[in-house]
């Protein structure tokens, strides 16, 4: 076992693969920390870097890693600092998006990757977008699952006080809520809530963990084995840094003046992703706002897709990703 799962896994995309793809695990010295990176494939056609969100780790991309590796690409999926098998930073409360952007650049350098396609979800697209704007010479393109590019922060003041992001932004509140249960119960509850189409909002006498209990079934596409992998890795990392990044660091994200993408941007949005109901998101996706910043923009909707669309509909997302890579060849 390495990284919470068996070393070898059969590539099971739509067509049966004739060989076994091995997901390997390395730790890279990056800016004073040891960062865990999962990788697969030889990369004859280039490199694709997968950037996870919360409550995820590298394992969130297992289906996509096998698919792109089988297609001739090198798949690279790091655990962000403070997540999974990566080191905890010495002062989590100083977390910033700049740290993750610089970590990503250092990972590419350490792996001798001159240019990569970035695939990201949840808060990962914030890093992918900002990295592409700051380092277009190192970026072949960006594929974002569930998050459009916004040039300024979204306003959540129209949502109720029990909105999970507002609650988790308050130091100590999520810690007290999560602390009532073991890590597996916390991860299980968050996965269930984030898989729904409604925005997680606690009532006045509730906390977020109260919105589901052990009688609430896991999503059909998420197994107990998957839950065990996530739980084992959050057992190691805890939630101290993940609560800082992203929830208590959003205000630190530095806007980029006059942003204009020089690379293709592809946004895939599940129409049942609760994020689609965030104030302003649907209008940004549909009113042409993004085209002002991304001249080479493609937007695709998956009607039944939720927040974890890459795990819910892996073959569909893999087809979209491989089609994008074919249309925009990655320099090896």
From TrEMBL:
Keywords: Hydrolase
Family, as annotated: Belongs to the AB hydrolase superfamily. Epoxide hydrolase family.
GO molecular function: hydrolase activity
Keyword Hydrolase attached: yes
InterPro entries noted in UniProt: AB_hydrolase_1 (IPR000073), AB_hydrolase_fold (IPR029058), Epox_hydrolase-like (IPR000639)
Protein name: AB hydrolase-1 domain-containing protein
Domain of life the protein comes from: Eukaryota
Ranges where the AB hydrolase-1 domain occurs: 47-163
């Amino acid at each position: 076992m390495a990284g919470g799962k068996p070393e070898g896994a059969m590539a099971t995309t739509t067509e049966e693969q004739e060989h076994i793809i091995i997901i390997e695990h390395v730790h890279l010295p990056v800016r004073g920390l040891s960062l865990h990176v999962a990788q697969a494939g030889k990369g004859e056609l280039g490199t694709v870097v997968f950037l996870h969100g919360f409550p995820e780790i590298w394992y969130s991309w297992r289906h996509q890693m096998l698919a792109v590796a089988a297609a001739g690409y090198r798949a690279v999926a790091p655990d962000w600092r403070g997540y999974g098998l990566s080191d905890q930073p010495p002062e989590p409360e100083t977390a910033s998006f700049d740290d993750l952007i610089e970590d990503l650049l250092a990972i590419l350098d350490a792996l001798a990757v001159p240019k990569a396609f970035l695939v990201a979800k949840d808060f990962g697209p914030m890093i992918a977008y900002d990295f592409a704007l700051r380092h277009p010479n190192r970026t072949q393109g960006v594929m974002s699952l569930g998050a459009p590019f916004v040039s300024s922060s979204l306003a959540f003041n129209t949502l109720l006080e029990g909105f999970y992001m507002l609650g988790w932004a308050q130091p100590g509140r999520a810690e007290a809520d999560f602390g009532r249960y073991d890590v597996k119960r916390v991860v299980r509850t968050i996965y269930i809530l984030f898989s729904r189409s409604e925005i997680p909002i606690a009532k006045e006498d509730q906390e977020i963990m109260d919105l589901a209990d052990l009688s609430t079934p896991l999503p059909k596409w998420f197994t107990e084995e998957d839950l065990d992998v996530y739980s084992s890795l959050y057992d190691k990392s805890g939630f101290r840094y993940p609560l800082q990044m992203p929830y208590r660091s959003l205000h630190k994200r530095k806007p980029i003046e006059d942003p204009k993408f020089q690379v293709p941007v592809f946004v895939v949005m599940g129409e049942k992703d609760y994020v689609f109901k965030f104030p302003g998101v649907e209008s940004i996706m549909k009113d042409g706002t993004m085209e002002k910043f991304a001249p080479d923009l493609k937007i695709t909707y998956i009607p039944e897709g939720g927040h974890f669309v890459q795990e819910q509909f892996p073959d569909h997302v893999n087809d979209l990703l491989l089609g994008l890579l074919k249309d925009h060849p990655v320099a090896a």
